[in-house]
Every structure is written in structure tokens, then in C-alpha cells.
Amino acid sequence: MNETNYIKLEFPSRSSNEGFARAAAAAFAAQLDPNMEELGDIRTAVSEAVTNAIVHAYPDTIGRVSMRLRILGGSTLEISVRDWGRGIENVDKAMEPLYSTGGEDRSGMGFTIMGSFMDKLRVRSTPRQGHDRHYAEIHMPPDEPAMSGDIYDAIRLAKQGDREAAERLVEENSGLIWSVARRFFGRGVDPDDLYQLGCVGFLKAIDGFDESYGTRFSTYAVPKISGEIRRFLRDDGTVKVSRGIKEQAAKIRQARIKRTAHRT
User: Which of 2, 121, 127, 258 is deepest in the core (most CB within 10 A)?
Assistant: First the structure.
């Protein structure tokens, strides 16, 4: 994709610069016209990346941190945060949830959070030569999917109770729903469950959409989809059990019941 704009910043690894980096990234991204929730995602990911460099790359000294942002193809924001600190011995291990080298007061969720809020995350490191983190996210909603009729006609039918029209809208917008659901991977919820939650949010977007405002449906739908997922993550507690673990636990319970019945 062609680069249409970019900025590059460099600053010392002081905690006071984390807020500056977060604000600068959001200001640069504003030219893509993201909504408030998307801006929040950008701020969160940048905050985690810069904090990671400050805390882990330079634990006992002040060093350099650079941040480069590029707009590619008119709709993709690429962010790269780099340091020249002590580096990471094992990148795969460092990207595991709850793993941290920053002491007991660190959650070890930095890379997990970055990956959840960005469409792509890549981490490269050489011990004692620093590491960088690359992540990119599509902030402008994708084009409306090709449909056999006017998408707004289908929305009108769905709002009137046409189940077939609603199912067709969900099916033909599944890529949009998955793109939002991917932001929440690694939160302890099965991806299929996240997709189903996204579908609920999508159907709510159909019910609430008002084309008279002149807003693209995908622009309206994205915060509805992510909002439904966020609501579940917030209300359902912070510790999630995956479907596989639940199924395994059910099998264990059944085996114990059978064994107890056999003994008696």
C-alpha cells in the first residue's frame, strides 16, 4: 500500500512522555476520521507499547524510544514503537498473557492488550539491542459489501421483521463483524462466542440505524458491535473460561458421577 502521510517522534524513556506519545498518536490518526472508541483503542495500544519500552527496555537507565506512524492506502494506520534497550530473550514467551519481567506490580498483559486493540501485532527483538513493536489497524470502516440489492432496502426489510433479510445482512457483513471481534481476542472468550456477540451488536445496529442522518451503515455498526462485546466482557467478570475448558470440565464431572455410581 502507498504511504500517504507519516510522522516520526523520538523521546527519552521517561514515564511523563507516555501521555505525550498517546496524545500525538491520536492527533495524527484523527485525519482518518475515526470514532471516539477507535481513538481510545489507539491511545490504549500506544500507551502499552511506550510503557513497555520505559519499564522493560530501560529498567535502570534512561534511553531512546522512537515512534513512527504511517497512513497506508488512505485507510490503514501503521504504528511502530522502537527502543534500543536490553531487548527480549524469548519473544514468544513474552507475548504470553500474565508473563512479565517487570516485577509483581506489572500485569504482564501489555502485548495481549496491544494485540486485542490492533488488527495486527508483530514484535521483533535482539537481546541487548532493543526491540520494536509493529501494529496496524484499519480505522476507516471497509466499503459496504456487495449485495444483490440496495443495502438500505435490506435494512428496511430487516427493521420490518424480515428474518431472511436480517440473516443475509449478517452473512454478507461477517467480515466486518470478525474484524471488530478480533480486537478482543486473548481475553479468555472463545472467538466464536465473540463473533456471536458481535452479531447481536450488528442486529441492534440494524434496529437503530437511521439513514436520514446520511451516515454509512458500517460506520454506525462498528461501535454497536464492539459495544456489545465490551458490555459482555465488563458484566461477565474479568476471568473467563474458554469453551474447551468448560467442555473438558463437564466430561470430568460426568466421569466422576459414573465412577461414584459404579462404586455404590
Answer: 121
Residue type, 155: I
- Hey, CA dihedral for 101, 107, 110, 115, is it positive or negative? positive
For cell 463483524, the residue is: 177
If we measure between CA atoms, which residue out of 35, 119, 47, 44 comes closest to residue 77?
119
The number of beta carbons lying within 10 Å of the beta carbon of residue 160 is 8
E-state strands within the chain: 3-12, 64-72, 76-83, 120-125, 131-138
Tell me which residue of 185, 188, 194 sits closest to 246, measured CA to CA: 188
Q: Using alpha carbons only, give the angle 10, 117, 35 rounded to the nearest 5 degrees.
A: 90
Question: Going by C-beta distance under 8 Å and a sequence separation of 6 or more, which residues neighbour residue 112?
Answer: 95, 97, 186
User: Residue 248: how many CA atoms within 13 Å on its side-chain side?
Assistant: 5
- Active-site amino acid positions: 48, 52, 106
Specify the 3-state DSSP secondary structure of 259.
helix
**pTM for the predicted model, two decimal places:** 0.48
Indicate the burial class of 159 (C-beta count within 10 angstroms; 0-12, 13-18, 19 or more): middle
Q: Which residue carries 466430561 as its cell?
A: 251
Conformation bin of residue 204: beta by default, left when phi > 0, alpha when psi is -120 to 50? alpha
What is the per-residue pLDDT across 143-163, written as a single tens digit (0 to 9) for each? 444 443 468 889 999 999 999
Give the pLDDT confidence of 79-91 residue by residue, as tens digits.
999 988 887 766 5
Q: Which residue has the cell 458500517?
A: 218
DSSP run (H or E) holding 110? helix 110-117
